[in-house]
Write a structure and sequence with these properties.
mainly beta, 4-stranded antiparallel beta sheet, 4 strands
């Protein structure tokens, strides 16, 4: 058994997967994986909260929080 080195996977750079967006998620109402739409649910001081909706029936199937970078202070 070999030990895996810490850090990004081979061929990848740090930050390659910092922001992922779902295109298909499992819907409990449809009982199948379905394409999803992303809807802005709430604007927070540190980012935004988005909700994933099933494209077939409109049920909520998940959420994602997008954090905003800290504001730059100019002097």
């Amino acid at each position: 058994m070999t030990a895996h080195p810490s850090g990004p996977p081979r061929g990848g750079r740090p930050g390659d997967f910092e922001s992922l967006q779902a295109s298909v998620l499992f819907c409990n109402r449809c009982r199948a994986p379905q394409p999803v739409r992303e809807r802005l649910l709430l604007v927070l001081p540190d980012g935004e909260l988005n909700e994933y909706l099933c494209a077939a029936c409109g049920a909520s199937v998940g959420s994602r929080k997008v954090t905003a970078p800290p504001p730059l202070l100019v002097r």
